[in-house]
């Protein structure tokens, strides 16, 4: 089954479908896996014995929220290396606490924890829903997990009226413990028990997945998300507005590019969870998932090191476009524009993993694909975010470049990107996965 996209509009239509299907990292991983399986990838299980064969395509997941997809090329791995593209499945959000139920003056609310570096103000006055993973006991007393998505608006975080806070537009701070608690229900005036959130999840599963025969919900990992769907916006339809563009846009780019990979050489897509909180988990970039996959692929140490030396990783994560209202927040020579091409991200303190070699190779890919390319360097007097790039480079030893599509409002509940940039990064990534020589077989400077 071919899943090729041939036009920018076709690419963006698929992106919007993917974003709608992916309110949480669990759903994003499932959406990626469904598309890969439909394209002929074989699902592997980490607990099974593997016998990987050149010419085949494989897929493995971990924690339901991270994924590796691998095209095993027919050419010798030591000769060609592996083309790797990495992104992350998680985004800043509000996560429901384990004992979340609150009754405040007859209003049923859920206690939440802020996940990652979220911009909190945009969460006010949004039509919110709930989604995530639920772990339950079935009627045979077996423990299993499933995904849930309420889909409909079930919660809201109302703003405080300006009449009660006259400095709201000039001096309002947000206390994450008490000011951002979502409202779900007005309780009856008469005395009654507080709704149990696990019971609400049980009822939702019975309604949406009755075949599961859920006996008891034991625990959950549930997030709130905005039900406003992604959209192409602007007077001339220049922009994509959506939640979770950071970094599902890059996941989708990697997916579509891998589906176009050359079968003669080996290519790999890795999309990991927990980047927004440091990647330190069994399924995060600091965990052993990629290293363990490479060890199973290449058990012999010397061969594995030789392959890694000839390989390259593109760490794809969104970049900060220069905001027309806040231009002073950028270095004057490094302010990427939306719809002007993917951005190479550079930081001398290794917050990004880009080197002159990996940057030069990516520029060559963009030139061959007739894709414009930009550069981002943070202001010297400002801090700089990071990505999975330095993590993978240090953990695995693969030469890495950090790139991304320029965006506005990063870490907001609704971010903004250009309609051309994901398409252009996809075109460059297709060239990467079709590059038949070893990407990093370079002559030494010594």
Automatic annotation (TrEMBL):
Keywords: Aminopeptidase, Hydrolase, Metal-binding, Metalloprotease, Protease, Zinc. Coiled coil: none annotated. SUPFAM superfamilies: Aminopeptidase/glucanase lid domain (SSF101821), Zn-dependent exopeptidases (SSF53187). Its cofactor is Zn(2+). GO terms for molecular function: aminopeptidase activity; metallopeptidase activity; zinc ion binding. Its EC number is 3.4.11.-. This is M18 family aminopeptidase. It comes from Cellvibrio mixtus.
């Amino acid at each position: 089954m071919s899943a090729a996209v041939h036009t920018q509009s076709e690419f963006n239509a698929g992106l919007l479908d993917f974003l709608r299907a992916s309110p949480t990292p669990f759903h994003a991983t499932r959406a990626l896996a469904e598309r890969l399986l439909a394209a002929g990838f074989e699902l592997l299980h980490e607990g099974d014995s593997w016998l990987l064969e050149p010419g085949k395509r494989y897929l493995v997941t971990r924690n339901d929220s991270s994924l590796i997809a691998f095209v095993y090329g027919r050419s010798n791995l030591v000769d060609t290396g592996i083309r790797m593209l990495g992104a992350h499945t998680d985004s800043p959000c509000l996560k429901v606490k384990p004992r979340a139920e609150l009754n405040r003056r007859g209003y049923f609310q859920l206690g939440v924890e802020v996940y990652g570096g979220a911009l909190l103000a945009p969460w006010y006055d949004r039509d919110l829903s709930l989604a995530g993973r639920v772990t339950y006991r079935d009627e045979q007393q077996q423990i299993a997990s499933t995904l849930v998505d309420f889909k409909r608006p079930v919660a809201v975080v109302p703003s405080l009226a300006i009449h009660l806070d006259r400095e709201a537009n000039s001096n309002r701070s947000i206390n994450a413990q008490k000011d951002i608690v979502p409202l779900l229900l007005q309780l009856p005036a008469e005395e009654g028990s507080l709704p149990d959130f696990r019971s609400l999840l049980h009822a939702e599963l019975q309604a949406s997945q009755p075949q599961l025969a859920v006996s008891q919900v034991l625990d959950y990992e549930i997030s709130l998300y905005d039900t406003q769907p992604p959209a192409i916006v602007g007077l001339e339809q220049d922009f994509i507005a959506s939640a979770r563009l950071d970094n599902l846009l890059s996941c989708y780019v990697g997916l579509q590019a891998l589906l176009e990979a050359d079968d003669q050489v080996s290519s790999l897509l890795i999309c990991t969870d927990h980047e927004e909180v440091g990647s330190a988990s069994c399924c995060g970039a600091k965990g052993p998932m990629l290293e363990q996959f490479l060890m199973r692929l290449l058990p012999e140490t010397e061969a594995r090191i030789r392959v890694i030396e000839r390989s390259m990783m593109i760490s794809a994560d969104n970049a900060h476009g220069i905001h027309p209202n806040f231009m002073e927040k950028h270095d004057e020579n490094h302010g990427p524009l939306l719809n002007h091409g993917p951005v190479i991200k550079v930081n001398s303190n290794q917050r990004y993993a880009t080197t002159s070699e990996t940057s030069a190779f990516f520029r060559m890919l963009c030139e061959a694909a007739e894709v414009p390319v930009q550069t981002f360097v943070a202001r010297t007097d400002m801090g700089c975010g990071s990505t999975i790039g330095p993590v993978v480079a240090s953990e695995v030893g693969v030469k890495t470049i950090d790139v991304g599509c320029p965006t506005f409002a990063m870490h907001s509940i609704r971010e903004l990107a250009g309609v051309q940039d994901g398409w252009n990064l996809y075109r460059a990534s297709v060239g990467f996965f079709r590059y038949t020589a070893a990407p990093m077989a370079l002559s030494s400077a010594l």
